[in-house]
């Protein structure tokens, strides 16, 4: 009798043979399936490629037809637009020509009317102008007589101004008129002795509020100066065009103005009874213009003498 071991060995051998056969069959079946799958995939790919080619060809045909239709439509629209534009330009040209013709007619009518009115107006104005010229000639003749009288008056004024005392009075009158125009009567006074205990009289002084009960008001001294003789020397030097004379006259005028500033400062400035500055008034514009040309001198008078020059 076979032993159990031998039977076990025989059984294992039989199982091994069966397993080998089964694996071989499975491999063969897998190979066949793969082969069939590759064949099926090849067929499907060829069919897909054919279908894709057909679709591409159909799409190309459709797109070509669309583009041809669009091009035809665009050409038709361009042709219609060109026709409409040409017709519009023709209408515009006709309208413009009609407007030009009507404008020319109106302008011609206006020109004729204007010429007619202009001739009439010109005749009327010429007549009036001749009347005006005649009247003005009469007025000129009268004016010549008045100028003769004025020349006599100017000569008299020159004689008046040649007197030093009269020149001072002339400056005072101008200063008084100026103060009366800008201040109330109670805001200034004439012939004031601003320094306490002094008899020096300033021509005019402006009354300003004081700083305490003991000094209810203070004075702002204003004195008019009229250095006519020195100024005339300077004007004559300018007329002669002599630089040396001009320089000499300018220095003399500066010296006179400086002396006047010192005189005003010494006589009339007395704080707290007055302001700490005074004003020198030059009544003639020419003299004032000549003085203010030198800003350093004005600053010097204000700094050294507390005198402001005005005119």
Automatic annotation (TrEMBL):
BP GO terms, sorted: DNA recombination
Organism domain of life: Bacteria
Q: Which keywords are on file for this protein?
A: Coiled coil, DNA recombination
What is a single Pfam family found in this protein's UniProt entry?
A: RmuC
| InterPro entries associated with the record | DNA_recombination_RmuC (IPR003798)
Q: Which residues form a coiled coil?
A: 78-124
For the keyword Coiled coil, the answer is yes
- Write out the function statement from the record: Involved in DNA recombination.
| Annotated family | Belongs to the RmuC family.
Q: What is this protein called?
A: DNA recombination protein RmuC
Species in which this protein is naturally found: Candidatus Egerieousia excrementavium
Q: Which gene encodes it?
A: rmuC
């Amino acid at each position: 009798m076979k032993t159990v071991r031998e039977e076990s060995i025989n059984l294992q051998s039989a199982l091994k043979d069966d397993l080998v056969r089964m694996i071989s069959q499975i491999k063969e079946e897998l190979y066949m399936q793969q082969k069939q799958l590759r064949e099926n995939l090849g067929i499907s790919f060829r069919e897909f490629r054919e279908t894709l080619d057909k679709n591409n060809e159909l799409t190309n045909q459709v797109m070509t037809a669309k583009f041809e239709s669009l091009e035809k439509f665009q050409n038709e629209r361009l042709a219609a637009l060109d026709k409409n534009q040409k017709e519009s330009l023709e209408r515009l040209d006709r309208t413009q020509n009609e407007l030009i013709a009507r404008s020319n007619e109106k302008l011609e009518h206006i020109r004729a009317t204007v010429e007619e009115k202009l001739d009439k107006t010109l005749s009327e104005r010429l007549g009036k102008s001749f009347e005006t010229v005649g009247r003005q000639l009469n007025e000129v003749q009268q004016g010549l007589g008045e100028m003769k009288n004025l020349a006599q008056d100017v000569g008299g004024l020159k004689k008046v101004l040649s007197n030093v005392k009269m020149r001072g009075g002339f400056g005072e009158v101008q200063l008084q008129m100026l103060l009366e125009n800008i201040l109330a009567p109670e805001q200034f006074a004439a012939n004031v002795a601003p320094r306490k205990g002094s008899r020096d009289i300033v021509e005019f002084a402006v009354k300003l509020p004081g700083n305490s009960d003991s000094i209810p008001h203070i004075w702002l001294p204003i004195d008019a100066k009229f250095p006519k003789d020195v100024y005339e020397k300077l004007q004559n030097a300018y007329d002669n065009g002599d630089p040396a004379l001009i320089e000499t006259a300018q220095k003399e005028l500066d010296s006179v103005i400086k002396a006047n500033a010192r005189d005003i400062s010494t006589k009339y400035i007395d704080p707290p009874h007055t302001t700490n500055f005074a004003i020198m008034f030059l009544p003639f514009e020419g003299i004032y213009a000549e003085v203010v040309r030198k800003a350093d001198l004005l600053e010097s008078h204000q700094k050294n003498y507390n005198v402001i020059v005005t005119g």
